């Protein structure tokens, strides 16, 4: 972008990848799960919400289908490249599975910039949004947010990332789109060597 480095020496962490090989890594379809058995659950079933779901332990109440979607979303965004460094967002702990919340047709992803004054936060969030827009069915509403308290311009960044008109305008900018495409090339993932 402008050549300014906002975090010259970021901390790089080991990937928290599980032992299972993701469908993204295996080059398989992300939406076909041979183990999924539709006769065991019905999408038309209405499950009541209780206090435990609201005040904690939400992961324990996820259906197998929502757990699968959580893994898919994590696999989609973990290999996005940081705009400043040759590392993935997961390696810099900008994104993690714990920062992804999944509802029936709603996905909320929080990300944590490496420094509170990160000037690349909007580009990182836009990269996450574009990867999910291109990969998930249109029925999903996607919210991308900076983790509360992790950025000095948190509200402004969140507003930009979740405004459809601003996102559309950003994607019409050829220079920004070129930078965005570089971020979307997998780093440390299945297609990188």
Automatic annotation (TrEMBL):
Any one GO CC term of this protein is:
intracellular protein-containing complex
Keyword Iron-sulfur in annotation? no
- Pfam families with a match to the protein in the record: FeS_assembly_P
Q: Which UniProt keywords apply?
A: Chromosome partition
Q: GO:BP terms for this protein?
A: chromosome segregation; protein maturation
Instruction: Tell me the ranges covered by the MIP18 family-like domain, including all copies.
Output: 73-144
Supply the Gene3D superfamilies for this chain: 6.10.250.1280, Fe-S cluster assembly (FSCA)
Regarding protein family, the annotation reads: Belongs to the MIP18 family.
* PANTHER family the record matches: CYTOSOLIC IRON-SULFUR ASSEMBLY COMPONENT 2B (PTHR12377:SF0), CYTOSOLIC IRON-SULFUR ASSEMBLY COMPONENT 2B-RELATED (PTHR12377)
State the protein's name.
FAM96B protein
Q: Tell me what organism the protein belongs to.
A: Suillus fuscotomentosus
Lineage summary: Eukaryota, Fungi, Dikarya, Basidiomycota, Agaricomycotina
